[in-house]
Structure to design on (401 residues):
């Protein structure tokens, strides 16, 4: 296929994203005030709890089988590599740039985590539906592409809320320690000790009873403390997010033949459940894209972001990572690690060239570490993505064909 046709094919989905994003930004303008902050919050909640899980579940149930799941085993490893390489490059950049402590978690998060769910779910179907698409039959391409993108979304979500979440948490804790006032560490334990000292002249129970009680309490604390620490570190509530639960359900239905026969297909007795989930899921992509536009508008209203940090993030995400990704995927193809499927190769390559995940803004808000600057980063990276994604997508399609 001619390079110009590949460029047009790659440009169309990006233009669609930009147009719908512009609609979101337009609706969020103060003059119209349709997508005001409260409306965005409610729509985001519906997308998070209803639309996205329904979309992921319905797609995976229809498209993923045990055989296909075995064939795409490299995808979780590939996504993990994007996170590790991005974090390593971000860490090296922080050492060179000497950024302020409050920005380090945000920079590392933006370098590590790409938008592995929403953008592929938008871009892949648009590429498949183009008349000049290099990936063959529209229906087969769309079905396979959405399955790959949904699996990418599920895996990416788990990595973001385990890996990136804890990276930002660690750096936000460092900020808290730097800002901690001397003497502020006096907590409940110190208060109890002081209280015991003040009342030591008026014993109510014998020393033996008190010692026995203290030993019993100490043993309970020793048992419970590791369990509490483990639960806090795992953060199961965040890890088992609706999209993750939807992915698990979709994989179970797709991989287990009796469940697939029950829910998927024209003759399935419970096909109405799958059809309903699919209808709900269809609303996910336009709603997400409109929200991205509305949220990115906040970046125009803020300033104060150090330009060198912004440039560093752009260079890592749009130059360094894609180049390294090409080397990794070409090496995997050369050694026969991944199966011969141009669409699969394209998605694996695309995972290295995506802008930062929108979830990073949520995580920075949770810890109060660089949340103001996050809007500026998102605005700049997504504006640049309109050019970089088109160019890299064109190159990736040429590379895999």
């Amino acid at each position: 296929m001619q390079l110009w046709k590949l460029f047009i094919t790659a440009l169309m989905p990006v233009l669609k994203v930009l147009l719908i994003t512009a609609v979101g930004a337009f609706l969020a303008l103060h003059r119209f005030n349709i997508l005001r902050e409260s409306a965005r919050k409610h729509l985001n909640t519906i997308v998070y709890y209803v639309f996205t899980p329904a979309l992921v579940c319905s797609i995976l149930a229809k498209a993923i089988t045990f055989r296909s799941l075995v064939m795409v085993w490299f995808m979780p490893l590939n996504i993990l590599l994007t996170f590790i390489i991005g974090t390593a490059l971000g860490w090296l950049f922080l050492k060179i740039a000497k950024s302020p402590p409050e920005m380090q978690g945000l920079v590392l998060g933006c370098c590590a985590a790409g938008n592995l769910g929403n953008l592929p779910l938008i871009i892949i179907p648009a590429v498949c539906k183009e008349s000049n698409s290099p990936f063959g039959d529209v229906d087969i391409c769309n079905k396979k592409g959405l399955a790959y993108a949904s699996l990418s979304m599920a895996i990416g979500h788990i990595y973001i809320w385990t890996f990136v979440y804890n990276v930002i948490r660690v750096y936000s804790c460092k900020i808290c320690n730097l800002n901690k006032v001397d003497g502020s560490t006096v907590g409940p334990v110190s208060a109890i000790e002081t209280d015991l000292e003040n009342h030591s002249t008026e014993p109510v129970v014998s020393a033996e009873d008190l010692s026995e009680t203290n030993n019993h309490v100490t043993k309970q604390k020793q048992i419970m403390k590791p369990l509490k620490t483990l639960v806090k570190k795992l953060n199961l509530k965040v890890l088992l997010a609706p999209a993750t639960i939807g992915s698990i359900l979709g994989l179970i239905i797709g991989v287990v033949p009796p469940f697939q026969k029950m829910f998927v297909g024209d003759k399935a007795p419970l096909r109405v459940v799958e059809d309903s989930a699919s209808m709900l899921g269809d609303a996910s992509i336009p709603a997400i894209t409109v929200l991205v536009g509305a949220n990115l508008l906040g970046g125009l209203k803020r300033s104060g972001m150090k330009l060198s940090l912004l440039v560093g993030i752009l260079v890592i995400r749009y130059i360094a990572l894609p180049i390294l990704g090409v080397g990794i995927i070409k090496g995997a193809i050369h050694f026969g690690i991944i199966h011969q499927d141009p669409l699969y190769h394209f998605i694996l390559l695309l995972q290295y060239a995506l802008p930062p995940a929108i979830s990073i803004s949520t995580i920075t808000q949770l810890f109060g570490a660089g949340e103001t600057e996050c809007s500026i980063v998102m605005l700049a990276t997504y504006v640049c993505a309109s050019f970089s994604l088109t160019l890299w997508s064109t190159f990736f399609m040429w590379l895999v064909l």
